[in-house]
Each structure stands twice: as structure tokens, then as C-alpha cells.
Amino acid sequence: MLQVFLYGFMATSSLILGGLFVSWFKIGKKALGLIMGFGAGALISAVSYELTYDSVKLGIGTWYPLLGFFTGAYVYYGSDYLLDKFMDARNRSKGTTNSFGLLIPMLLAIVLDGVPESIVLGLGMSEGEGLSWAMLAAIFISNLPESIAASTGMKESGTKASTIFLVWLGMAILFSLITIFGSTFFADTSKEHLSFIQAFAAGAILTMLANSMMPESFKEGGKQTGIATVTGFAISVMIIVLEMKSN
To answer: Which range of residues forms the domain containing residue 65?
Structure first.
């Protein structure tokens, strides 16, 4: 159980690293855009090869992959919409503005995709397949730019560095515990339900990419964002290919 926790913490430790990086260094808008573009590429790879593909394999011949995909998309969309309304009303009542528009959707996406990903990571170890290094690497790589973007928003809104660190430490511990939960309580879950869980994460991530992360990254990083996105995608795919060759 301790080993499962440590692997889960390893995968999500990039959340903490991203927060520390922002606390220690000043990141320009262009650099932030390119970092988010890189992360978007890594996330597209994770959605394609680690979530959607596996979901379709598990739920082939059923509606579970499609149902999970659209459920994840609409849950993210609805949650983001309601949070936007709440933040707009709050800012109007206080006469303030949101200093960084990507903060709320990014935090929401981290939670909505982090929970299913942690379950899947733990489940893979419980089934005797060993640790999926490709899955771990995909989670680590994709979480880093998300954390950097969200931490930048927190820093610009006046949040203390210690608070930013505690937020990411708490999330990393939470996701690590969920990894244990996945390896313990989801061991007997049907393939169809696992298919739904993975597709849910894929739908939430893809909606976040289209609505928030990619438009913001292009806005700040310019046309070079496309190269950064391809680089993130290529590195993530390369890790998956290397793992397949080693098995």
C-alpha cells in the first residue's frame, strides 16, 4: 500500500514542483504560453493513448466509452460555467477583477482529470500488470504546466507562496490516497465501468483544452505555441512507445 501511495505521489509531485517554480521565478507571459502549449500536447497524447484508447478497448461493443466521454465534457463545461458566473458576481460585488482568467478552469480540470487518472493508475497496479510508466509520465508531464498556470494566477491574485505550496501538497496527497483507493476498492470493478471512468477523464480534459488552455496558450505564446504543443505530444508518445517496447 505504501508503494502504491509513493507511485501516486510521484505522478502528482509535478503539481508541487510547478507551484515552487512559480514562487521562486518570475515567468513572462510568452514563456507561460509556451509552457501551456507543451502541456496541451502532452495532455492530447494522454487523452488519445492512455485514456480514450484504453476506454474503447475495455468497453468495446457498449455505449460506456461514449457516455463517459460526453459526461466528462458536460460536467467540466457545467462546472466551469457555474464557477464563472459565481466569480463574475463576486468580483462585481467587490469591485474587483479576476487577475488571471485561467486559474479557475485549470484548478477544476486538475481535479476532474486527476481523480479518474489516480484511480486508473492504482487499478493497473492492483491487477498485477505493474506500474504503467507511460501513464505515470503522462500524468507528471501534463500536471506541471497546469500547476504553473494555476500557480501564476494565484500569485498574481496575491496568494502567499506558502499557501500555494500547501494547496499543491494537499492535492498531491489527496490524489495519492485516491491511487490507493483505486488499487483497493476498484479491483473488482467491471470493464464497462472502468471504461466509463477513463472516458470521463478524457472528456473533461479535452473540453478544458479546447475552452481554456489552448486559447490562452496561443494568446500569450503566439504562433510558436504550435511547435511547443507538437513537442509535448511527441515526447509523451515517445514515452508510451518506449514502454511498449520494454514489455
So the answer is: 2-246
Q: Cell numbers 503566439 label which residue? A: 222
pLDDT score of 209 more than 80: yes
Return the residue matching grid coordinates 504543443. Answer: 229
Q: How many residues does the chain have?
A: 247
Q: Are 133 and 7 in contact (CB under 8 A)?
A: no
Total domains, the chain: 1
For the whole model, what pTM was predicted? 0.82
Map residue 198 onto helix, strand or coil.
Answer: helix
Dihedral-angle region of residue 98 (phi above 0 means left; psi in -120 to 50 means alpha; beta otherwise):
beta
Cα 214 to Cα 117: distance, rounded to the nearest angstrom: 21
Residue 32's alpha-carbon distances to 52, 93, 132, 136, in angstroms, are 28, 30, 29, 23
CA quadruple 129, 134, 138, 144: dihedral sign: positive
Q: What is the mean pLDDT of residues 69-89?
A: 85
Amino acid code (one letter) for 43: L
